[in-house]
Amino acid sequence: MTTKQRAGLRSMGQTLQPILHIGKDGIGPTLIKQCYDALEARELIKVTVQRNAPYTAREACDELCEKVHAEPVQVIGNRFVIYRESREHKTIDLEALL
Fold it and tell me: What is the pTM of this model?
């Protein structure tokens, strides 16, 4: 992913509402499944790390991206945005962001 593509995804991510929340239980199999399904449906999602979570936002982003094979887009405060191209419902064209 190029820096221009990442910048385009960052601008798209600013209007998103967080759809996943990482709490005190951390990143478990259920959260991974929800994240995988959400990425397949939307391609770009925002995640919130709550205060009682055992991770910082950067640590959670890195671990979750590794588990669901996604790309980190942006980490700010306790939120982060990740991207993965959908296999069936492709809506974001990275080539158009260049």
Answer: 0.92
Report the Cα–Cα distance between both ends of the chain, in Å, rounded: 10
User: For 37, phi and psi rounded to 5 degrees?
Assistant: -65, -40
Q: Which amino acid is at 8?
A: G
> In the structure, what pLDDT confidence band is assigned to residue 9 with cuts at 50, 70 and 90?
very high
Contact 47, 58 (CB under 8 A): no
Q: CA 53, 57, 62, 64 torsion: positive or negative? A: positive
Return the structure tokens found at 2: 């190029």
Q: Are 39 and 62 in contact (CB under 8 A)?
A: no
